[in-house]
Amino acid sequence: MSKSVFYHAGCPVCISAEHDIVNLVGIDNVEVVHIGEVRERIEEAEKAGVKSVPALVTPQGNVLHINFGASIADVKG
């Protein structure tokens, strides 16, 4: 993985965190994935270790859970 991946579910907490992450690391350095809309990426997020969103997965594979918007279980429905 060459970019960080920011997973979120579209809630206000997630959108605010998305803006902050993009401003901090730059849009060229992060892929933003709205798993509420792109549900086939939920499994990918889980395999990366994401337990709740918003979360940032670094290029080294570290998962940084940011605030707490929703658990992956809640997003899966």
List keywords for this structure.
3 helices; Thioredoxin-like_sf; single chain; Thioredoxin family protein; four-stranded mixed sheet
Tell me what you see in this structure.
The chain is α+β, with helices and mostly antiparallel strands and 77 residues long. Helix content is 34%, strand content 32%. It has three helices and four strands. Strands 2-1-3-4 form a four-stranded mixed sheet. Strand 1 (4-8), helix 1 and strand 2 form a beta-alpha-beta unit. The radius of gyration is 11 Å and the shape is globular. It starts with a strand and ends with a helix. The model has no long low-confidence stretch (mean pLDDT 92).
Question: What topology does this entry show?
Answer:
Blueprint lengths: L3 E5 L3 H14 L4 E5 L7 H7 L3 E6 L5 E9 H5 L1
Parallel strand pairs: 1-2
Antiparallel strand pairs: 1-3, 3-4
What can be said about this structure in brief?
This is Thioredoxin family protein. By secondary structure, this protein is of the alpha+beta class. The protein has helices at residues 12-25, 42-48, 72-76, and strands at 4-8, 30-34, 52-57, 63-71.
